[in-house]
Write a structure and sequence with these properties.
The structure holds three protein chains of three kinds. By secondary structure, chain B is an alpha+beta fold. Helix content of chain B is 26%, strand content 35%. Chain C is flat and about 75 Å long. Classes of the chains: A alpha+beta, B alpha+beta, C mainly alpha. The structure holds adenosine-5'-diphosphate (ADP) and magnesium ion. The site of adenosine-5'-diphosphate (ADP) has 11 residues of chain B, from strand 2 and helix 1.
């Protein structure tokens, strides 16, 4: 209200108060983000280093914050004037751009002082050169610099680095891209004679004020965009940006599957030309060798399927029975059982992999049953995973049973059914969504299982697709990645199909059946 | 089948559901369990069905003690307020389920289901699922399912509460006729006293887990044994005022600071000895008159009920409900003269809250 | 209550006979329930209880490849020796802090913060779009670990194959193998992307259950979206937040599949090795030919104890009230 009345009083081109407020917004961002950088580099990094964790995460984060800091400040300035846009469009834009200019100066001073942004030290050979016929002509040398030390002289013509011919443009790019202390083996023509010198790069300070200009232009553009940006797009853009690495990963998988080889996201053929689309990677489906390994993909797929289906059926049966008893029956120790299930639900089962190895080998020695459930047997492997999923499954099933009205079960009992029949004929059909959700969950769990099959199976007879993939990567050389991608895709396809049809169930269950509990 | 309940008790942790219940239901009788919500009606019924285990006491069907008998071996049929139909089965599947569990041959199942369905007027719906039926139809299916196994006892837990008023009326008489025709012992839980009064041979009134009275509808209405029953049965409820009954001039008068009424001798005599008592009189026994020996009262609220107008009147410290002819156009704030028809007046002891007339 | 005619003695015997009767009855009714619980019970005993006992025993033996046996009685019992070694092992200390670092950073950046951001943003856009975004976030969870890790390796590897390095090349930046140069970044991001969905789902359902009236009221007050988040939504998320933190701490502490496949604890000596991975390496993944079952078990025992303690706390804090409901059928 006050702001409105105020702006009516001052119809001029610029409102000082609004300008100051806009600058203040930007400065708050600058200060806050700088503070984060300081905390990361001056406090967290030494702290973590003091306990000998070799990490660069704090550095990476700090670099990231430093990188985005100016732009966020400009966006803050731009969005600060958005509410004045409809009343005084010209004044709003002017205010924001002016504020941006001020912020740019402040940030640039910071960059200069701390050698950041455009002033960050870059790799250098401590000499300058210009474009010349056949290479780069050395123009000047920093006295006492690495180039001079190595014996480079003014007037030398650099024709190549190692074997690769260079121009002054490509040479600067090569230098800029290299890490500190990388060796450059320069091929030099001096007075008609060719020599070779090795110069190692150093990090050199950078104080060329001319580099600021493009930065200013970008700053003003960012501000302008922020002023007129349709705000309702922001969440979409952010959500997409966060997902980008993931989407790129899956995108690569698809491209790789259908091409001869890839560099980055670009499919290439044998000669290195863009293209190279092929279906050859899928030949394994028709019995072709996979990277020279003579295995039957269908046997492996069948193993995967057996593990997944066994897991699904057993998890459903066992958890629904236990869930039924815990939800609907009165018996001594019910509360104890319930608490125990809960503790198991939180208990980290993978910590028991070592002793389960022993249990499996004991089970294998039991006559008859041992043939099915011991070490290196698909059903035995499924049982371990079933056990790991049980706490979740029982809890989930109990929750679903809890929601069925009591009268229906009472009615069935009065009609003459036993508890077993009420469970099987009356209640189970009514928790179809729960059965479906847990079934899908267990199936995917079994289909994707890696750690437990990897740990408890040895022969090719029990190997499943994920374990096979790992073998393909670890035991073939050179790895044919496009072949591996195709097998990976083959493994992923059923999961994708389930994903498309059952997203809702999956979303519910991957919170561990905890939805609405809090 | 006779049902004998002795000293029946049910406790849920600290909560007492039913306390020391004694009830004998004769063979073929229709007994209603009437009481406010939460008084233990459903609990009693579920103990009869075998779903809840009694904490104490015995239940006999005929001469057999059934405390330890499973629900499926009690041969009872039960109808729930929520219908409790099996949503994944058709109407046929629902009704035939008890027969299927008894391993009745398929052919006989079909015949019996058809017969019951036709009796209930749902013969054409056998292929539908419960979700495709109206409330009334669902309740008929539930009733059919309860009847198809020819039970010894029928239990109803507020079966009509979820139906609309009109349907409730027709279902009420249908159930009553059916029970009459089949001669099955029926125990019918309801909180609706009109339902209980019109359907039941005898009504058991419960409050807070305790049986208050077990009598025919007429006795409950005209000769209530406790203050609770008197106040609970009848709508609008009975009016109460604390009075002293005294022998005066060869007759009896009930009086307090604002009223002074002649009491018939046989009733007055029983109340006179007790000092201060609670007098009860039904609204329909109080008439608005133009003149005569009457109490003057101020009208606080007028509620038109259609056939009657209900007046909320005040005199002295007492507040009464009175039924009046709407043609009189009485309005709030008016002063009216009231005549008390004392032939059916009730008196209760203040301490024991029991009737001074009927015990 | 009591009739004046009954003596104290009568009451006593009545009560006694009642309990005896109900105990006899409950035995048969228990049997049915235990029948339903039996299969689950078998699996839990076989794969939880027995292994817990075994691992405590193993951790007090010096079982290794050289004296390996599955016969428990033939193992050499060394008492708490393994734990003494563990507490003096400088690598154990490094691995311990690695684990703390890994859990704290992943939890705070991804499982909580990013999850919160995603659920806040996806509930403030068109419903179906929001649902679609959330659905995509479960892809990392349903993709087999081997395939999932392959995708991330492709992002990280050196030029010209790596996707990030392809971008670097285009921008004229330095290229290097990120798994060697930035291993922790990748370990954290890779696990973080899996962890987001859990918090996201919990937070989303909490946000969606905030009464619309409350949000509308704050809209009428003229508050901005940020103010609404700060003053209306976040305070209501306190409980879900606590839940996600406790639960996910446990998950992060014990999940090592992805690290195993991504860096296998490297590059270099124990650069990204975490506690649970060590237990696995020592006993089950004998690259160096000598599996130390006993010592590995000692590592696992530490986790087992932490796991049980956290699980008990977690149960006490979050779920116990749900247990109170008693079944409303008592037959059988
Ligand atoms: N399964 C149960 N567990 C605990 N308390 C119960 C249970 N069933 C009924 N109660 C309690 O017992 C009392 C009687 O309940 P109920 O028989 O359902 O009343 P009504 O059917 O008359 O409305 C109530 O206080 C109710 O809360
Ligand atoms: Mg009830």
């Amino acid at each position: 209200m006050a702001a409105l009345a105020h702006s009516d009083d001052t119809p001029g081109v610029l409102d000082v108060h609004s300008l100051l407020r806009t600058i203040r917004n930007g400065l708050i961002v600058v200060v806050a983000l700088s503070l984060i950088v300081v905390i990361l580099t001056a406090f967290l990094r030494p702290l973590i280093a003091s306990v000998k964790v070799d990490e660069s995460v704090t550095t990476t984060l700090a670099q990231l914050v430093i990188l985005v800091l100016p732009y966020i400040a400009y966006i803050a300035a731009g969005s600060a004037v958005r509410d004045q846009l409809s009343d005084h469009p010209l004044r709003a834009v002017l205010t924001a751009l002016l504020a941006t200019l001020v912020l740019f100066v402040v940030i640039s001073i910071g960059h200069f002082v701390f050698h950041l942004g455009p002033f960050v030290p870059t790799s250098s050979l401590e000499m300058t050169f210009t474009e010349a016929e056949g290479g780069a002509l050395v123009e000047s040398l920093v006295p006492g610099g690495v180039a001079e030390e190595a014996g480079v002289q003014v007037g030398d013509l650099i024709t190549a680095v190692r074997r690769d011919p260079v121009t002054s443009g490509t040479l600067s790019a090569l230098i800029a891209r290299s890490a500190e202390d990388s060796p450059f083996r320069l091929r030099i023509v001096r007075g008609g004679e060719e020599t070779q010198l090795t110069v190692r790069t150093v990090l050199a300070g950078n104080d060329d004020l001319g580099k600021l200009l493009p930065g200013l232009v970008v700053a003003l553009i960012v501000t302008a965009v922020a002023i007129f940006w349709p705000g309702q797009w922001t969440p979409y853009v952010i959500l997409l940006a966060i997902l980008l690495p993931l989407l790129i990963g899956y995108f690569w998988l698809i491209i790789a599957t259908f091409s001869y080889r890839t560099e980055g996201l670009i499919p290439l053929d044998g000669q290195g030309n863009v293209g190279g689309w092929t279906l050859n990677n899928w030949n394994f489906l028709f019995g072709a060798d996979i990277s020279g390994l003579n295995v039957s993909i269908w046997q492996i797929t069948l193993n995967s399927l057996i593990i997944a289906v066994a897991m699904m059926v057993i998890v459903l049966l066992v958890s629904s029975m236990a869930g039924y008893a815990l939800s609907r029956m009165n018996f001594a120790g019910r509360r104890a059982f319930l608490s125990f299930t809960l503790v198991l639900h939180g208990f980290p089962a993978v910590t028991l992999l070592i002793p389960i190895f022993f249990v499996m080998s004991y089970l294998g020695k039991v006559p008859l049953v041992g043939e099915f459930i011991g070490f290196n047997k698909p059903v035995g492997i499924s049982l371990v995973m079933v056990a790991f999923e049980l706490p979740l499954g029982v809890w989930l099933m109990k929750g679903f049973f809890d929601n069925i009205p009591w009268d229906i079960e009472r009615s069935a009992l009065i009609d003459g059914a036993s508890r077993w029949r009420t469970y099987w004929e009356i209640l189970l059909p009514q928790i179809r969504p729960g059965i479906l959700a847990l079934g899908i969950f267990a199936f995917i769990g079994g289909w994707n299982a890696f750690l437990i099959p990897q740990t408890y199976s040895t022969g090719a007879g029990t190997i499943n697709l994920p374990v096979f993939l790992r073998q393909l990567i670890n035991e073939t050389a050179p790895v044919n990645w496009n072949q591996v991608a195709a097998v990976g895709m083959f493994q992923l396809i059923p999961v994708f199909i389930i994903f498309i049809f059952a997203q809702e169930y999956l979303l519910n269950i991957y919170a561990g059946g905890t939805k609405g509990s809090s | 089948m006779e049902v004998k309940i002795e000293n029946l008790k049910k406790q849920f942790g600290q909560v007492i559901g039913v306390k020391d219940l004694d009830l004998n239901v004769r063979d073929g009788e229709f007994v209603a369990l009437l009481g406010p919500s939460g008084c233990g009606k459903t609990t009693t019924l579920l103990m009869l069905a075998g779903i809840y285990k009694p904490t104490d006491g015995t239940i006999r069907f005929g001469d057999r003690v059934v405390n330890q008998v499973q629900p499926r071996d009690r041969n009872i049929g039960m109808v729930f307020q929520s219908y409790a139909l099996y949503p994944h089965m058709t109407v046929f599947g629902n009704i035939s389920y008890p027969l299927k569990l008894k391993k009745v041959p398929k052919q006989e199942q079909m015949e019996r289901v058809e017969r019951v369905a036709n009796t209930m007027g749902i013969g054409g719906l056998l292929d539908r699922r419960p979700g495709q039926l109206s409330g009334g139809q669902q309740q008929r299916v539930a009733l059919g399912r309860a009847l198809v196994k020819e039970p010894d006892i029928l239990l109803f837990d507020e079966p009509l509460s979820n139906l609309d008023a009109r349907l409730r009326l027709t279902m009420r008489s249908e159930i009553k006729q059916l029970q009459n025709r089949l001669g099955i012992t029926a125990i019918y839980v309801t909180h609706d006293q009109v339902e209980a009064m019109t359907m039941a041979d005898r009504i058991a009134v419960m409050n807070q887990g305790v049986l208050q009275a077990f009598d025919t509808p007429e006795d409950l209405y005209d000769r209530p044994k406790t203050l609770f029953v008197a106040g609970f049965v009848g709508n609008p409820p009975m009016n109460f005022a604390d009075v002293s009954v005294m022998a005066e001039h060869g007759g009896f008068t009930a009086r307090n600071e604002s009223i002074r009424l002649q009491v018939p001798a046989e009733r007055g005599q029983k109340a006179a000895a007790a000092g201060k008592v609670r007098m009860g009189i039904r609204p329909e026994d109080i008439h608005v008159v133009d003149e005569g020996d009457a109490v003057t009262a101020e009208v606080v609220i007028v509620e038109p009920l259609g056939r009657d107008a209900m007046l909320d009147v005040r005199f002295g410290s007492d507040q009464f409900l009175v039924l009046a002819d709407p043609q009189k156009h009485i309005r709030a704030g008016d002063q009216v003269k009231l005549h008390f028809d004392m032939d059916s007046v009730q008196f209760f002891d203040l301490q024991s809250e029991r009737s001074l007339l009927w015990n | 209550m009591t009739q004046p005619t009954t003596t104290l003695d009568d009451q006593f015997t009545a009560a006694e006979s009642r309990t005896r009767r109900s105990r006899k009855k409950s035995l048969s009714s228990n049997m049915a329930a235990y029948g339903f619980l039996a299969p689950a019970g078998f699996l839990v005993i076989t794969f939880f209880l027995v292994p817990v006992v075994i691992i405590f025993y193993l951790s007090m033996t010096n079982l290794s490849t050289s004296n390996f046996t599955t016969d428990l009685s033939a193992m050499q019992f060394v008492g708490l020796e393994n734990f003494r070694i563990l507490f003096n092992d400088q690598f154990a200390a490094k691995i311990f802090f690695n684990t703390v670092f890994y859990v704290l950073v992943t939890l705070s950046l991804f499982n909580v913060t990013l999850a919160l951001i995603v659920s806040l943003l996806s509930t403030h856009i068109e419903r179906r779009a929001g649902f679609a975004f959330r659905a995509i976030w479960i892809l990392p969870r349903i993709t087999a670990a081997t395939v999932y890790i392959m995708l991330w390796r492709r992002l990280a590897v050196e030029a010209p194959y790596g996707i990030i390095n392809q971008v670097n090349t285009l921008l004229g930046q330095t290229t290097y193998n990120y798994l060697d140069a930035r291993p922790w970044e990748f370990v954290i991001v890779v696990n973080g992307f899996i962890g987001v969905s859990f918090g996201m789902i919990i937070f989303t359902s909490a946000i969606e259950s905030i009464p619309k009236d409350l949000l509308n009221a704050s809209l009428v007050d003229g508050s901005t979206i940020l103010q609404r988040i700060r003053y209306v939504i976040l305070p209501l998320l306190r409980w879900p937040l606590l839940f996600v933190v406790t639960y996910q701490t446990l998950s992060l502490l014990t999940s090592f599949e992805q690290i195993l496949l991504l860096t296998d604890g490297g590059p270099g000596l124990y650069a990204t090795e975490v506690w649970s991975l060590t237990a696995y390496h020592r006993a089950l993944s004998n690259y160096f030919g000598n599996a130390q079952w006993g010592y590995g078990s000692a590592f696992a025992v530490v986790l087992v104890i932490i796991g049980v303690v956290l699980a008990v706390i977690y149960m006490r804090v979050f779920r116990f009230n749900e247990l109170v409901a008693e079944p409303k059928i008592e037959v059988l």
